[in-house]
Amino acid sequence: MKRDFLDLSSVSSSELRGLLQLATRLKSELKNGMEHPYLRGRTLAMIFQKPSLRTRLTFETGMAQLGGHAIYLAPDDIGIGERESVKDVARNLSRWVDLIMIRTFSHATCVEMAREASVPVINGLTDLLHPCQIVGDLQTLSERYQDLRMLRVAFVGDGFNLAHSWIEAAALLHFELRVACPAGYEPDKHFLARLQREPRCLLTNDPLEAVKDADVVYTDTWTSMGQERETGKRQRDFRNFQVNGNLLQRARPRAIVMHCLPAHRGEEITDEVLDGPQSVVLEQAENRLHAQKAIMLWLLRPSVLTADTRPDTGQE
Ligand code: CP
Ligand code: NVA
């Protein structure tokens, strides 16, 4: 049966650890000039209904590095759900390509795509979740810290897609997670219930409480893609949730600052913090490449996850 990568909840802790190990291995091998055409002759279709820099570039580059090919479909190219139903797009694509990545608004569209496609589908961000981002972020943490269970992670901002994916990650890897959102911007009720079930997770409306003694301070935009009309209201509602030097002083002295990017400088994060010595945002962006190569291999050539490093011919 084919697998998809739509969320972290359908991945086991050991599978997630395997993905992180493979991502780090691929990264160091790439730096040592080793080539792995594990996906020679394979094609990835990338459907984007929202803009992207990192997700597009890292999937396309990753596929090229693995010997395969990626096709970018811009928001107006195929008119998914308007010119043609999700089901028809999924069933056509499945006849031509080996893998589909979709960035869309409603998570239900992503789930429908996976249900109708006979090839694996990857969630490249929905309004509910951004699992590829979190795998890259967990890789960044696992390259810096021996045992993620020892960490206190503070998520400061909107209880939206990134916060939901962090809640899934905490449930799998058992680090401490403190989510601080303004009233009215808490996570969706399903994820809120999950957070409340986790003994080491906490929800608060006070960013100072979340960040106190944190090892990791994470933030995201106050206005996600698709919410642009609410920008003014959100700037007011989130004004006490800026990650700035003052807030960062509450964290541990060696705490790191993370952001999925794109950042709205001067809103959710100051220049001083984003460009400062505690920021690891470019490491996170870099790791998207390696994490997604690992995800694509997990879906298309799972044996690579356990294989030793050896020259590869592109054949299973
Ligand atoms: N973090 C992230 O997904 O970036 P893009 O929106 O540029 O793809
Ligand atoms: N929450 C943001 C994440 C961007 C990568 C958004 O959905 O726009």
What keywords describe this structure?
single chain, 316 residues, alpha/beta, Rossmann fold, 2 domains, four-stranded parallel sheet, 41% helix, globular, binds phosphoric acid mono(formamide)ester, binds norvaline
Q: Percent helix among the residues?
A: 40-55%
CATH architecture title of the largest domain? 3-Layer(aba) Sandwich
The number of helical elements comes to 12
The radius of gyration is 19 Å
Secondary-structure element order, N to C: HEHEHEHEHEHEHEHEHHEHH
What's the CATH topology label of the largest domain?
A: Rossmann fold
Main beta sheet strand tally, sense and closure: 5 strands, parallel
CATH class of the largest domain: Alpha Beta
Cofactors and ligands: phosphoric acid mono(formamide)ester, norvaline
Describe the structure.
The protein folds into 2 domains: 13-130 and 287-305, Rossmann fold (3-Layer(aba) Sandwich), CATH 3.40.50; 145-279, Rossmann fold, CATH 3.40.50.1370. Helix content is 41%, strand content 13%. It is built from 12 helices and 9 strands. The strands form 2 sheets. The protein has a 5-stranded parallel beta sheet with strand order 7-6-5-8-9. A 4-stranded parallel beta sheet has the order 2-1-3-4, sandwiched between helices. The two termini are 17 Å apart. 46% of the residues are buried. Residues 125, 160-162, 220-221, 224-225, 260 line the site of norvaline (NVA).
